[in-house]
Amino acid sequence: MAVERSEPPYRLALPQPTESVEQDMEYCVLDTGDGWTEYRFHDYAELYKVPGLYERLFYDILQCQSPPVVCDLLAEQLAAERIDPAGIRVLDVGAGNGIVGEELRARGIGKVVGVDIIPEARDAAERDRPGIYADYHVIDLTALDGDRASAIASGGFDALTCVAALGFGDIPPEAFRAALDMVAVDGFVAITLRDDFLSDDDTSGFAGLIRSLLETGELEQLGSTVYRHRLATSRDPLLYRAVVARKRRPR
Ligand SMILES: C[S@@+](CC[C@H](N)C(=O)[O-])C[C@H]1O[C@@H](n2cnc3c(N)ncnc32)[C@H](O)[C@@H]1O
After folding, report:
1. Which residues line ligand 1 (CB under 6 A)?
2. Domain boundaries defined on the chain
3. pLDDT score recorded for residue 53
4. What is the mean pLDDT of residues 102-118?
5. Could you tell me which of 55, 147, 181, 245 has the fewest CB atoms within 10 Å of its CB?
C-alpha cells in the first residue's frame, strides 16, 4: 500500500466502547496540531483529506474486512466460470480512496473505473493509489444523463462492485439501479449490504429493490456470505452480507 502509516501526523481517539451510537452517527476525534475536532464517520470529504486516516480508523482500529471479502467472492466466481480477470472491466461505485480498486487489481482484474459523489474521494485515490483506476468519475448517479452514462459505460461494464457504500445516506437504491444499468447483460455484480437491509423490516428500500431484481430474473444470485464488516465504535461486530450475482435479461 502506497500510504505511509508508521508515524501519523495526528492524534486520533474514539468514543468509549460503552457509548453506543447508531452506525450513521458514529464519530471520532482528531488532532492534527490545532486541537481536537470531532468528525462523523460519514464526513468522508474531511477524512480523505488526511493521508492514511481512513485506513487507520476503519482498517487498523475497526478491522474492516469488506473489500477483500467482496473481491474474493467475485474472483472465485470468475475462476469457477474460467473467465480471465485480465479481460474484465469493473465499475467500482462509491470507490472512495481506492481500497477496493487496489484489491481488484491485486486479483488480476484488468481495468477498474471508479465512481464517487465527492471530488475528495478521487483526489485521495489519485494521491494514495495512483494508477489503480483507469478512470475515476465524480458524479451523482441519481442525476446522470443518458449520454454521460453511455459514455462512461461504453458498451457496458463486465462487473459492478459496491463495497460499504449502499444505504445509510450514502448510495440510495435509485443510484444503485443507475449503476446496474451500466453493466452489460451477463455481467457480474458484487456488493455488500448491512444484513438487516435485506430483511422484511427494511426501510432503506434495498430489500424491495433486490427482491424485485431477483424475482424478475434481472439478477441471478450466485453466492452470498454473512461476515463481520467491521467493529462498531462500541466494539460490537457489524454484520454485513456480501452477494455475488449475475445480471441477466429480465424475463
Ligand atoms: C464507506 S466509503 C467506502 C469506500 C470504498 N468502497 C471502501 O470500501 O473503502 C463510502 C463511499 O461512498 C461514497 N458515496 C456516498 N454516496 C454516494 C453516491 N450517492 N454516489 C456515489 N458515491 C457515494 C462516499 O463518498 C464514500 O467515498
Report:
1. 44, 66-67, 93-96, 99-100, 115-118, 121, 141, 163-165, 170-171, 175
2. 11-61, 66-247
3. 95
4. 98
5. 147
